[in-house]
Design a protein that fits this description.
heterodimer; A: two-stranded antiparallel sheet; elongated; B: alpha+beta; five-stranded mixed sheet; 38% helix; rod-shaped
Amino acid sequence: MKQKIKSIKSQQEIIGFVLIIVIVSVVGVIFLSLSIGRGEPNKQTSIEISNLLEASMYYTTDCAIGFIPQYKDGQALVKACWNEDKCLDERMACDVLNETLKNIIQQALEVCDDENKCENKAYKMNIYYSSLDLDLPDKEILNFQEGIFEKCKTSFGGSHLIPLSSINAGTLNIELEVCRS
Amino acid sequence: MKQKKAQLKIQEMAFFLVAIVLFFVLVGLFAFSIIFSNLGKGATSAAEARTLSSITNLADSPEFSCGEPNCVDGDKIVALMQNIKYEKFWPFSSLRVHRQTTFTKNESDWIKCTPTNYPNCDFFEIYDKNVKNERAISNYVALCRIELENDYNYKKCEVARLVAGTELKVAGE
């Protein structure tokens, strides 16, 4: 009698053990499917965006320094903005840079909420200074955004670096991130 | 009695083995999901890089280059447009350069560049073989030309798109 009770108990233990394993497996599979299916949107590096930034660095702006037609290109204007220079017509280089880059990016990357009309939902541009001394924090120079950076199916971006070889040795970083709907 | 005990032990072992197999299947699935998600990312960026590098190389070729990387010379393009030999020079079915004005204008309003109206135009058509199935790939480039102001020459650059068409081969054709 005692042995029968013992075997029934051990059978129950085995069934319990199997149940636990099955439950843990099911929970694991659900967790896996969720983590694969609903992960954060992939943030990719885009050559196209990097090329757009590179091309905009050649763009001839209407900010002349010295004499006309010594107009600054995009890259020289970023440096001028970092040095807080002014154009011949007394405009701040940073204001011209802001206006020029906004204009180029707005025209190149059409942004709207309706995914049937355009494929880009939002973009954000960030220009900052990074010192060679990694302990020093980055210094923001300019940033602007168009559209709302939410619920992106994919997000991709590019960057362009301008090395500085002066007392403030470091790099000026230009980053553009695009949210695609 | 002994037989029953042995059966129970076998059962126990069988369930234990099932549990171990399930555990390793889960671990395997997890590892695969990580590996394949990275593979997917890699494949997408590699395909994009391959396609775009062909046009980037084109922009940097002596026939187009303004002397800087990813920069094309408007005056060279005008010269290229008049030379029909270039249709066979590049492996593209069509080649165009869209100026910055085309980013905001309707396509129907675009003005084709010719040696007489340049630079008051919107796009350069270097050549077009007029193929049926064509896929266009494009890349942003800087488009520069030499301008004269106050008796000084200077390089004036804008953002443009270099658009190359490739013929899609349909099976059986």
